[in-house]
Amino acid sequence: MLVTTVEGGLRRRRPDELIVEEPMSIQLDGTLVATTMRTPGHDYELAVGTCFTDGLLGGAPVRGVRYCADGSAVDSEFNVVTVETGGLAPTPTPRLGNTTSSCGLCGTESIDQLCTWLAPLPALDPIPFDVLRDLSDRVLDAQGLFASTGAVHAAAAFSRNGQILLTREDVGRHNAVDKVVGRLLLDGALPATGLGLFVSGRASIELVQKAWAAGFGTLVAVSAPTALAAQTARRAGLTLIGFVRGDRLNVYAPERIGDDPRWGSPTTGA
Fold first, then answer.
1. Strand 80-84 and strand 22-28: pairing?
2. Which 3-state string (H, E, C) describes 135-183?
3. Nearest one of 49, 54, 84, 86 to 69, comparing CA atoms
4. Same domain for 69 and 155?
5. Is residue 8 part of a domain?
6. 89, pLDDT greater than 60
7. Residue range 194-207, pLDDT digits in tens
8. In this structure, how many other beta carbons lie within 10 angstroms of the beta carbon of residue 163?
9. Catalytic: which of 51, 103, 106, 115?
10. How far apart are CA 160 and CA 133, in angstroms?
11. Residue 9 lies in a domain
12. Is 103 a catalytic residue?
C-alpha cells in the first residue's frame, strides 16, 4: 500500500506493509465456539489453543484439525477451522458474540467460571534474573511480522536457561498466546511445567489464565499487568513479571521472591 510519510519537513510517497486482519470461526466437533479477528497463519494452532485454554476440550485428545467443517476451504477463504475430538470433548457452549483482536473474553464469562477447572501450579524455583533481562530483545529478533509492519503482538515459550523455544505473532495478544499453546499441545508438550511464557504489551487476566491453563510457571510481560491479573497469578501460583527492561523488572506474583541473591539485595522495607 502507498502511504504519505512526513519527516524532517519533507513529504514523500512510499510503499508500506500493513498487517492482515481477518475473522476466523472456530468449531469444536462441528459446533461454532468462537469467532476471532486474527492474523492469518498458524490457524490450526490458534484453533486448538483457543479450545484448550478456554477449557472446551475437557481433557479430550485432539484427533484432527482442518479448514471448514463441510464444503470447500477455498469457499470459506480459509477462515473456518474445525477441531475434532470424535465427540469426546464435552458438548461445547458457543461463545456469545465475536472476539476482537484486542480482547478475548469480552464479558461473556466470569473469572470464577474461567478458572474453576484449573488447579494451582506446582512450586518452582524462580527463573534467574539474568535469563529474563534480555528476553525481550531475543524475542524481538524472531518477530518478522513486527519488523515489517510494527503492528503485531508476540508470544514466546522459553526455557529456564533462556532459550526461545517457540515464537508466534498476531494482531491479538491472546491469539499469539493461543498459537503457542496450540503448537505445544499438538507436539505433546503440555503441561509446560518449568517453561516461561513471554508476551508483548500488558498482562491481562486472560493471558494469566491461558498461561495457567497451559502449565507455564512464569509469565513475563513487557508492560504492566492488571490488578485482577496479579491477583489471579497469586491464586494460580504463577510467577508474574512485568516491565522487563534492561536491569529492571517488577515481580507481581508471588508477593515475595525469597532471598535468592541472583535477584539482587533487598533494601529497607522490601
1. parallel
2. HHHHHHCCCHHHHHHCCCEEEEEECCCCCEEEEEEECCHHHHHHHHHHH
3. 84
4. no
5. no
6. yes
7. 999 999 888 999 99
8. 11
9. 103
10. 13
11. no
12. yes
Return the closest-CA partner of residue 53 out of 144, 125, 155: 155
Q: What share of the chain is helix, strand, coil (3-state, %, to 5)?
A: 25, 25, 45
The verdict on pTM exceeding 0.70 is yes
Q: Report the domain count for the chain.
A: 2
**Domain span including residue 252:** 129-263
On the CB side of 268, CA atoms within 13 Å amount to 0
Q: Do residues 250 and 168 share a domain?
A: yes
- Residue 149 pLDDT: 56
Residue 2 CA to residue 17 CA, distance in Å, equals: 9
Q: What is the pLDDT of residues 218-251, one digit of tens each?
A: 999 998 999 999 999 999 999 999 988 878 889 9
> What is the grid cell recorded at 219?
509469565
Examine the domain organization and report whether 75 and 149 are in the same domain: no
Report the length, in residues, of the chain: 270
- Report the CATH number at residue 39: 3.10.20.10
Residues 137 and 245 in one domain: yes
Q: Which of 48, 103, 127 is nearest to 229 (CA)?
A: 103
- Domain membership of residue 182 (yes or no) is yes
| Omega cis (within 30) before 261 | no
Query: Can you tell me the mean pLDDT for 95-102?
Result: 52
Q: Do the domain assignments include residue 108?
A: no
Cβ within 8 Å of residue 115, ≥6 positions away: 209, 212, 232, 235, 236
- Is the pLDDT at 75 greater than 80? The verdict is no
Q: What average pLDDT does the segment 165-187 reach?
A: 94
**Measured between alpha carbons, how far is 211 from 78 in angstroms, rounded to an integer?**
28
